[in-house]
Amino acid sequence: MNKEIGDRIKAIRISKKLYPKDVGAEIGMLQTSYSKIERGGNTSVETILKIAKVLGVSAAEFFGDVQMVAEPVEKIGFVTREEWVQGNREIINAVKEEIAQLREELSLKKEGYKQKAKKVSRKNK
Question: Which of 7, 24, 68, 120 has its Cα between 20 and 30 A from that of 36?
Answer without folding.
Answer: 68
